[in-house]
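Posting for a labmate who doesn't have an account.
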Amino acid sequence: MVVLSSQPFNPHWQCPPFKLPSVDGRIYSLADFKDNEALLVAFICNHCPYVKAIESRLIELAKRYQKRGVATIGICSNDPTNYPDDSKEALLLRWQEKDYGFPYLIDENQSVAKAFDAVCTPDLFLFDAKRELFYHGRLDDNWKEEHKVTRHDLSDAIEDLLAGKKPPKDQISSMGCSIKWKK
């Protein structure tokens, strides 16, 4: 397992356009979220222990903020040939079992991950209403043990965004497994 950290925060960076199928067969594009106050894009997968450790917290956060106009999408860009846990069928099953409540998209040709410069799972990008990057960092300060969390970095960033504040100055990179690129 290769552990990487997400790229540093890049203010004013625009959300790249995308058009991807979801695990349930629907097609989503950036335009589908034009009316949302914010958009959280989470590069995740099924097999990564870092994603598994934060998965329930991410789902709960997405559901909590959906009511306040924050849309969330998950994107899996991993090579399903070498990582069958990240196949469309396996992703669909996990999405249903965990009741994600947000679209889980499949980046089969990995072009969206490359456009985002995503490097790990989880890799979390929060965009404002103009789709400028507001936050690019970790979910919280303890990926492994939820009961030891003392800082809720992503939730705090969402609150700042919704309150009209500036992006947080200290954005600590997310950490996780490398995206599994096709050869």
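Reply:
Got it, the structure tokens are right above this. The first helix runs from residue 49 to 66.
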